[in-house]
Amino acid sequence: MQAFSKVLRLVELLLIVFSVWSCTQERDADVGQADKRTVVSLHLGIKTQMSSGCSSCELVNKYQWNFLYRIFSGKEDIEFVVYCSDENKREVEQNLLYDVLILVDKSPETDELVVCHGRKTMFQKAGVLDMFSMRQITELLMDSALENEQPLRK
Amino acid sequence: MKKVLLALFLVLVLLAAIVDFSPASIPPCDQYLEWCVFTYCRQYYNPDQYLQCVNKCAENYALNCL
Amino acid sequence: MIKKLLCLITILAIFHFPSYADLKKVVSIGSDDINYRFFGVAGAVLDDQGNVYICDSKGSFLRKYDSDGKFIKEIGRYGQGPGEFSNTISGLYLCDGLFVLDTGNNRIVELDQELNIRRYIKLSKLALSIMGFSDNLYMISRTPGRFSFEVGVYDRNGNYIKSFFDRRPVFIERIEQSKIGQALSLIYSSIAATVERETGEVAITFQWPGENIEIFRFSKDGEFIKKIVSDHIIKYDFPEFRLKGLPTNLRFPDQSNLIMIRSIHSLDEKRLLLEYWVNEYNLDKVVKENEYILIVDRNSGQLVHRELLPLKSGIADARKSYICAISNEGDVPEVVIYRLDY
Question: Which CATH architecture fits A2-147?
Answer without folding.
Answer: 3-Layer(aba) Sandwich (3.40)
